[in-house]
Amino acid sequence: MKKILNVLFGTLLTFTLFLTSCSDDASIFTAEDTENYVDQSVFAVQAEANAGKMGCFEFIFPINILFPDGTSTEVADYESMRATLKAWYEANAEELGLPAKGERDRGNRPDIDPSLLPTLDFPVEVVSAEGETISIADRDALRELRRSCRKDFYGGRGHHGHGRGDKCFKLVFPISIAFPDGTTTEVADRRELKQTIRAWKQENPDAEERPTLAFPVTVELEDETQQEVASKEDLEALKESCSN
To answer: What residues does each domain of the chain span?
Structure first.
């Protein structure tokens, strides 16, 4: 009898451990889950402004991103953005609701509810393919800016087409900015550039023209090589080449 009880106890313990293991496995996020969240989040932030390698504009970092829990974080560049998104996801994954294990087993990258993805926190500054430097005060201004750009962001494939790199170029400082009144000013870094065009926008809220880059400018490409851009037309050509 004692032997039978030991066998039954061992079987029950094994079954309990099995159920616990299965339950734990269902709640553990994988590296693929994290990568999927980070990739879709970067895509969502870019898509808001039609910015990035396949968009009409490039972000002037640093920018602020707003998380679903209401917190806002400044990110210095795309590398910083991805690291920040990864840390936030890993800290909040259980509350977000993880993809079903079966979906992971099939190798799928399930679409994440947009309400669980970050958004832009305004104001945000961008530079256009024509070299305009633009300060976007709010979502209404962003919608108006997006209407000026009809580029088919990532070919309509959504985040499934994302993966060819985050940016086309970033500016190499110092650079000079030309204002509509014919004056120019030199700025030493990205933060000074943002402050300069933001201040100009506040002083000239109804102006139809915007400050522009004073060419030539030097830009850094995705592969970290640098290139001098001589004119607005050359910058447009460079931006277009990133989409091909």
So the answer is: 2-242
